[in-house]
Amino acid sequence: MTKRTKFSQALYEFDAFLETQKNLSPRTRQAYRYDIDRFADFWLQRHGKEASVVYLDAVSMDDIKFYLEHLRMDLQYRSTTLSRTIASIRIFFEFCVVERFLESSPATHLHNPKNPRRLPIFLIESELKRLFQAPTLDENAQEEGHSKIYPHLVKRDYAILVTLGFTGLRLSELVGLNLRDCDLESQAARVLGKGSKERIVPLNEIVIHAIRDWLVSRAWVCAEGEQAVFVNKFGRRISTRGVEQLVEKHVQSAGIEKDKISPHKLRHTFATLLHMNDVDIVEIQALLGHSSITSTQIYTHVSSSRLKKAVKKLEDI
Questions:
Q1: Domain 7-98 classified CATH 1.10.150.130?
Q2: Taking the chain (317 residues) in consecutive chunks of 10 residues, what is each chunk's mean pLDDT?
Q3: Would you name the residues annotated as active-site residues?
Q4: H helices of the chain, where?
Q5: Domain spanning 125-302: which CATH class is it, in words?
């Protein structure tokens, strides 16, 4: 027996479910809510209803399809954005069925649009090296009369860049890294990934030396009791936006002209370089913390030079 439930009440309980049961971040929950709120607003406008009187069982599959067609045709949504919207709506109504707010989901038979396959943007080795050198170049520029740069932040920025480039950490994972998570003697870090899943990430010598060097300076500037490995100029845990800004700044200093090189693009770079150095796809999956190998398979693209070499080998047959 289902209980007739208002749309607004179901959405409130869905958000609580994502937080307490799924342990999703506020940012991810906000994305789900944004998608469903927009659908609800469209439905209300189309049917001339007030939100306070709308019940879940008034929503049909035709309503959802009409909304998706509006996004595709009128708003020119890309297939990737449509897929995310469909996923949000489908998960919401599945939750409503489980909670017995509905007998069945009106989103059961929705299908995702086909996504055009796009290769991830990444840096080649020479660009990555230039990026790593950028904090030092900025420090030298300061000596020539340019804008003030805090000397200890040069070491921090370098440590952040090499950690991103040589571990493939997600931005949230890097920001959430605490001192107790880094075992420099064992050359590994414990990382809390998506869904609160822990994994151990190996650290190479470059990352270890960079973090050790930074920790010496950190001790002088860090706020009392702060456990974060990477902090801002005030000694508190650095924000995700703070990391994004420093990556953007050093990409520009390094003269790298590729668009939108972000911390996530450094994760792409890490995975791509592993693949190009013949690391098995399953091992790359483990290093990145992907729950499904499908997410990792995008890195199985190869450079045109490697393809040419592969074809060249056929001459010896």
A1: yes
A2: 79 88 84 90 83 80 90 84 89 92 89 65 88 80 50 91 95 96 94 87 94 94 93 94 95 87 92 83 85 71 51 51
A3: 170, 194, 264, 267, 290, 299
A4: 7-20, 26-47, 61-69, 79-98, 125-143, 151-167, 171-175, 205-221, 240-253, 263-276, 281-288, 293-296, 304-313
A5: mainly alpha
